[in-house]
Amino acid sequence: MTVRIVIADDQDVVRAGFGALLDTQPDLTVVGSAADGAAAVGICRETRPDVVLMDVRMPVLDGIEATRRIVAGAAGARSGRGPRIVMLTTFDLDEYVYDALAAGASGFLLKDMAAERLFEAVRVVAAGEALLAPTVTRRLIGEFVRLRPHTAEPTPLALLTPRETEVLRLIAEGLSNAEIAARLTVSAETVKTHVSRVLAKLGARDRAQAVMLAYEFGLVVPRSGGPRI
């Protein structure tokens, strides 16, 4: 199945470069591009892509608000499904990327990534299998959750069974369904069921948001050098 992609970036060279690279792959195709967030929202509405590569900082409408509108539009659509949004940034500890993840983005990539990494990331996020650049993403989430106050109110974590809580911890480590299955000695189908229930109980759109909630609710505690699980 071909993955349909929209590229949103205010730099012509970035859009052209990514587009040329992606179109070299038989299973990837660029169906649109936009120089600002408002145009990205419109193009996504018209083309219904599978993945959007979204710059964080753009004129007219920034990537965070564009992400929020695309996600909201997908939630209101009859299918209930929208594109997976991947934020593009020039440095990994970008506070705006955290806000974009909170708005519904599925992950982020650095603009200076290698071509093979770009191809792999688009395929992975289109499949909804795992976070992009999990080590760096965990560090980003951990850094900014550390700075935000924790709520004392009851959290949805109480709704999870012990096994679902264990699965959420492993998701936060960046493990794929196959890796979680191997760790727990269960089938991949069983893991898929657990993941679906975790997302539903947490009200999370995808695995990226589930990881953010694991940090925010204190299930995973950030520390220098990686998470304490």
Automatic annotation (TrEMBL):
4-aspartylphosphate PTM sites in chain numbering: 55
Record domain HTH luxR-type: where: 153-218
Classification via SUPFAM superfamilies: C-terminal effector domain of the bipartite response regulators, CheY-like
UniProt keyword DNA-binding present: yes
Stored SMART domains: HTH_LUXR, REC
Keywords noted in UniProt: DNA-binding, Phosphoprotein, Transcription, Transcription regulation
PANTHER family associated with the record: TRANSCRIPTIONAL REGULATORY PROTEIN NARL-RELATED, TWO-COMPONENT RESPONSE REGULATOR
Protein name: Response regulator transcription factor
Gene source species: Streptomyces lonegramiae
